[in-house]
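Q: Entry one of two.
A:
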Amino acid sequence: MSHPIMSEFDIVFAGGGTTACVVAGRLAAYDPSLRILILEAGQHTLNKPIHVQPYQYPFNQAATSTTVTFNVGNPSPRLNGRAPIVPCGRCVGGGSCVNFMVYTRAPASDYDDWGANGWESENLIPLMKKLETYEAQPGRPTHGYDGPIKVSSAGYKLGISDELIHVGTTYHKRQYADDTNDLETCNTYSPWRKYIDGTTGRRSDAAHHYVYNQAHNPNLQVWDGKRVKRIIFEDKRAVGVEFTSDPVSCPDADQSSSIVRASKLVVISAGAFGSPTILERSGIGAEAILKRCGIEQLVDLPGVGENYQDHNLAIVPYLAADEAVTMDAIWRGESILQESLAQWNSGGKSLIAQNGMDSKLKWRPDDEELKAMDSAFQPRWKEFFQDRPDKAVAIFTAFAAYVPPLSRPLSDILPPRNYMSAGYYTLYPVSIGSVHIKVTENGKEGVDFTTGFLDDPSDIVPLDFGYKKTREIFRRMASYRGEVAAGHPDFPEGSAALCREATGPVDLNAPDIVYTAEDDEAINRFHRDIVQTAWHSLGTCAMKPEADNGVVDARLNVYGVSNLKVADMSISPLNVGTNTYSTALLIGERASIIIAEDLGIDCV
C-alpha cells in the first residue's frame, strides 16, 4: 500500500493494535480534520480471510505466522528450565484480529482496585456499553446495544458445550446463568459469547470497526510495515517518531530511518512488549538497563518494563466420539470445509463462524475443593479471594477440538479423528515478570523477557487442582472416549490415573480418581512443562504513582516528559479477571475521551 508523503500529523500512534485503532478511530470521528497517523509493524488485515473468518484463528499461531510476534522468555527453573513463548498480535488491529474471540468481562471491582482517578467502574461501565452491540440477549442493564463491536452466540451451536454445562450443574454442583459477564456473577456455568457478528459471521475486531470503516477520511492514515524505533524529543517534549521499514513485513525494503512529526501528541500503543521497549529506546527507563544498551537517559523511570503479568493456561486433550461435532475436520481442511464456507458466504452461519468454545465456568473453589487443594494456596485465598465473591480463581472451558499447546504440540502425530480439550487458566496469579531491551552477543537489539510464570508457589496450586477437576468433568461428558495420553501427565505404571482410550463416559455418580503423592508430583511436573501464556500480557507501563514504580498517570501521560501518552494493555496496573480484549477496547474508549478533552474536542 503506498502512502502519500505527509511528514507531519497532529497525532502519531506508535503501534496499531486494538487500543490504537479504538483511540484513532474515535478521535477521527469526533474531529475529521485531525491529521492522525498509525504506524504498525505488521501488515493490513482488511478483509483477509485469516482475520475475518473466525474458524481460522489458530492459524495465526502457526510457527510460520507473521501476524503475531513470538516473544521468547528467559528459561526458568520453575518451568523445568523451559523458555516460554508468548505470542502477541502483530498486524493492524493487533490482538483483536488474531485472538480466540471469546467475550469475557472483568468484575467491575477490578477497575476500582486500580485506584486511578477517572478509571473507577462507575465511569467505565457507560464506556463498556458504548463499545458493544450485545446481540445475545436484549435489555441487560450492563450491556450495550448500538456500539461498533458485535457480540453474539455465533453461527453454530456445539453439543460438547451443552455436555460441559450438564455435568457442571449436576456432578460439579454449580448454578447455571445465561450471562456471567454482568460484571459480578461468578462461580456459575454459562454460555460463552463471542466477538463475532451474529448476522455476517465475521470476527468483530477493532481494525474493521473503528478504522477501516473510516476509509473515506484521508486524514486518518495507517502505514503498515513500519517499525517504530524511538520517540523524538525537543526539551523533553515529544515531537515525532523515528521508524524504519519492518524487516518481517517488508524484507526487501530499505532499512534506513524516517521521521514523522507530531504537532499535538504522540501515543505509544504497542502493547505490553512494544510500549516499554519503545520507551527504553527513547531514553526513558531504568539507568542500568539503558546504560548496558548504550542509550543516553532522558528520564529516570525504573517502572518501565516492570510489572509484567499474564494468565496461566493449561490445555489438555481428550478423545471425542465419532458422532460429536468438533472443529478438527474443518481445521484439517477436510471436505466439510468447502460446504461450511458456502454456508458462511451465503448466510454467515456454519462452523466457519465458530471458535470451538460455547460454554465456560468462572470458577471459585467451594469448601470441599479448598480442603483438597495444596496448603500453599490458602494464604492467597484468604488475603485476596475469600471476601471478594466476584473474583474467579480460574476459568474452565471445553474446546470442541484438539487445541495444540505452545509447548509439546501433538498435531503432527495425532490420528485424524474427533477430539476435545480441557482449558483452564488462572486469572490472578501472584508472579510478576518484566520486559526490557538488551543487546545480544552479535550486537543486535533483543528483548530480555522474564515471564515470572509459577515463581510464586501459590500459582501452581489451582492449576494442579484444575487438571483433576476438569478431568472428572470430561470423564462424565457424553462425548468422552478417553484421554490423549501424550498430552497428559506421565503417571507411574499401576496408577489409577493412567490415561487410556474408553468406550464412553463414566457414570455421573462414579467415584473420583484417587491420586497418590507420586501422581501429584507427575501433575505438578506436567504443568511446569506445559503451562503457558493465555495471550493476556499486560502491566509493563503501569498507570500508578511514579513513586510506586508507575510509568503513566491517570491521564496516561508518561512521567517526566510532555506530549507523550501510552494507551494499551501495558497501562493496567493490576491483573484483570478476563480475556483482555474487552479491557483493551475499554482502555481505548477511555483514552479517546482523555485525549479529546486535552485537545478541547467535543466527544459526545
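Q: Entry two of two.
A:
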Amino acid sequence: MAAAPRISSLLSRSFFSSSLLSIGRNSPRRGGIFRYSTGGAACEELINPPVNVNYTQLLLNGHFVDAASGRTFETLDPRTGNVITSVAEGDAEDINRAVSAARKAFDEGPWPRMSPYERSKILFRFADLLEKHNDEIAALESWDNGKPYEQAEKQEVPMVTRLMRYYGGWADKIHGLTVPADGLHQVQTLHEPIGVVGQIIPWNFPLLMFGWKVGPALACGNTIVLKTAEQTPLSALFVSNLLHEAGLPPGVLNVVSGFGPTAGATLASHMDVDKLAFTGSTETGKTVLQLAARSNLKPVTLELGGKSPFIVCEDADVDKAVELAHFALFFNQGQCCASGSRTFVHESIYDEFVKKATARALKRTVGDPFKAGIEQGPQIDSAQFEKILGYIRAGVENGATLEAGGERFGNKGFFIKPTVFSNVEDDMVIAQDEIFGPVQSILKFKDIDEVIRRANATNYGLAAGVFTQNIDTANTLTRALRVGTVWVNCFDVFDAGIPFGGYKMSGHGREKGIYSLRNYLQVKAVVTPLKNPAWL
C-alpha cells in the first residue's frame, strides 16, 4: 500500500466525537434492525472557495462563445444546493458547430500534420500549466463536485498532470511495423489518427476523466469534441483554456457543456464523428452504443458501472482489512465506479470485522470539503442524494442490519452519513445494484470456491479487491475473478500506465496506459511489390 501517486494516501485516522442516536426498529424480513447513526463532524459555517469562475461559455474553434440558443443552465454547490454560476447550455446546433470545427482542424489544420515531437511539447507545456494552477483547479473541482479539496489538490490534479506528461512521452513513439510477406512484396503498417473523436465524461471525476480521454486522443493526433457532465462543467472549461495557452491549435479541442438527451445524443449519433468514448452508467452506455451503431457505426469505448467485490480472507489482518475496505467503499463519497461495494468477509472473522467496520464508519469525518481533515463531502446533487437514501430504505426493508448511518447529515446540502449494513445477502437490492454512495454492504462467505462464484454472479465486471497474506489464495482469486482490475492488498491505485476497464456490462476497451492508444488509432496495411530484391 505504499505506491504513489495514489489516492489511498488520503486516508485519515483523525477521530471526531460522535453523537450516537439509537433508532432500533425491526424490519419486516430476516429481523433486520437499525442500530446507530453517526453525527460525524459538527456543522460549521462553510468556507468560501478560494477561486473565481472565469469560464462559463462553450469552447468552439479556440474561442469561448455563447450557445447558439443563448440559453444557460445553473451549476450548483453540493454543500448547499445554491447556484455557483450559470453556464452556456449547448445543444444539437452547438455540437454541429463543434464537430465542424474539429473536422476542419483535422482535415486542414496543423495538428495531425505536426511532428509528433511538436505535439509532445504542447502536452508537456500543458502539464506545466496544470502544475502551476494546481490549487485553483482543485478548488473548482471541489466546489462544483463536492469532493474534499485535499483529495483534489494533493491527488487528482497531480494525477492529471502526470497523465499529460505520460501521453506527451508517447506522442513520438507511436509507429507501425514492417511485416514479412510470403511473396515479392514490401508490407508495412501505419498507425494513423482515427479523426474526429467525441468524448462524454461523467460528474464523479470530471477532471480525471478529462485527462484519461483527452491525453491519449491528442497524443495520437486526433481532434476532439468533448461534452462535460451537466453537474460539473467548470474544471474542464478552465483546463481547456490552459491547453490552448500551451499552444494547442484552434479547433483541436472543443468543449460543449450541456445535457445528455440534446448535446450528448447528438454527439453520439453524429455522422461526422469517427470515434466515441463514454464514461457513465451502464444504462446510458447502452443508449450511447445504440446511437453510434444506428448512425455511422463508429467504434465506441465504454467505461461503465460496477458492483465490485472486496474479498477479505480468513488470514487477513482485520484492522488493516477494515481500513482498506472502508477506503474502497467510501472514497469520493462512494461515487466511484470501481467502489468495493460488496464487502465479502470470511465467516471466521465476520463478527469482528463488522464491529470494527462500524466503528470506523462512525469516526469518518463528514462536512465542508474545503475544511482540512474532512474525509467526506456531499453527494453530487439532490437526485443522487435521494437515490442513495432510497437504497438505504430498501436495505432495511429487505432485512439487512443497519449498523451505522442511514440518514442525511446536517440540514442543508446533500450530505449522507457513512452507512454500514451487515447480514447482507446476495438477493438484496443493495447487493445487486450500483448505489454510487457511502453505503457499505458486508456479506459473509465460507470458502474460496463459494466467494468466487458469488463475486462473479453479477452483470458487472469492473474491478475487485483481494485482502490476504497467502500468495496462493491471491493467485487463485486474481485469475478467477471476471473483472478488468484486481487490487491485491491495495485499492484504487490509478497510475498513468495501468490500464482500466471492465468485463461484461462494465464496458468495452481500456483507458490509460499503452492500451488506451489503440482506442484512437487506425491500423492501415500498405503493400508494394518488390522487383529483384536482394533479400526477403
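A: Comment on entry two: The longest strand covers residues 185-193. The two ends are 51 Å apart (CA to CA).
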